[in-house]
Amino acid sequence: MKIQRLFLNPDEHRPRVGWRLLAQFFIMAAALVAFGVALSPLFVWGERWGVSLLFISSLVGLGGITTSVVLARHFVDRRSFASLGLHANWEAVRDLLFGFALTAAMMGLIYLIEWTAGWLTFEGFAWEFQSPAGVVREALIMLVIFVFVGWQEELVARGYWLQNLEEGLTRSGTGSSGRGLAWAVLISSLLFSLAHYGNPAFSWAALLGLLGSGYFLAYAYIRRRNLWLPIGLHIGWNFFEGTVFGFQVSGTESYRLILQSVRGPTLWTGGAFGPEAGLVLIPALLLGTLVIRWYTRNPPKIGVCATL
Asked: How do the domains of the chain map onto residue ranges?
């Protein structure tokens, strides 16, 4: 009986939170391998077909991560997929679009700060060197890629990890529900940051910047108790950061509409990793937090797993 209580929550008759997270991790690893094998012909023929490796990689992540969360949520958590905060309604559309639009202002602020400080040199626009049709095509491809990335990363970080951790830490006697939530935000944000460890130019500054970004996205989830707002923020952040304003996206290159080069102090600009590794990130996150607080003046008063 004691061994059984180590693995199962006696009140719910399902695995404890640590085992649920571990199960999702192994399901995710297996699903990513499976999708990688299934889509391997695209990697071989991608160049001939004009399909970028980044697009194919995002498809693998989309399939693997989504599949793992769906399976873990149903068979391990014994909860519905929609209960993660994915109910489809007009409010979800509004939150998604608002989050996407807000990041345009946030990234615009970063661009303005760096340009005003003389850390950034504007070099032109993409349509000055490429046909309009080519510009639209490349920008739309990047938007689709960032939709895939924003969905899958928020689904697992602010969806599966954060919500399971909050539920488990609150019920385990860690303290008040507020303290359990605080630990859940910290752990899930740290995992989110460490998930980028393999990105080019990753550093301690990048780790801290992504940790702060994780807190920002968690705040958006907590204020609405749905994933649509953080998903919109994540998609928009990557798209406006890389494709529109021409910065590095967590150390990776992106198609750019604004051609520019950054030569300012790495401490402020983030250097080769991009704004997430620089102090210039802080005013943007503060702006976003204040706007989200205003936008969610009357947040829904529902629990993490209100729908079972």
From this structure: 1-78, 88-295
Task: Report the chain's C-alpha Rg in angstroms.
Answer: 20
DSSP class of residue 121? E
Q: Are the beta carbons of 206 and 252 closer than 8 angstroms?
A: no
CA 51 – CA 246 distance, rounded (Å): 21
The pTM score is 0.91
Q: Which residues partner with 120 through β-bridges? A: 262
User: Using CA of residue 247, residue 253, residue 255, residue 259, what is the dihedral sign?
Assistant: positive
CB 183 within 8 A of CB 256: no
Q: How far is 186 from 307, CA to CA, in rounded Å?
A: 25
Query: Which tokens in the block code for residue 256?
Result: 């750019």
pLDDT tens track, the chain, 308 positions? 566 566 677 666 788 899 999 999 999 999 999 999 998 888 777 665 555 788 889 999 999 999 999 999 999 999 999 999 999 999 999 999 999 999 999 999 999 999 999 999 999 999 999 999 999 999 999 999 999 999 999 999 999 999 999 998 886 555 456 788 999 999 999 999 999 999 999 999 999 999 999 999 999 999 999 999 999 999 999 999 999 999 999 999 889 999 999 999 999 999 999 999 999 999 999 999 999 999 998 755 444 333 32
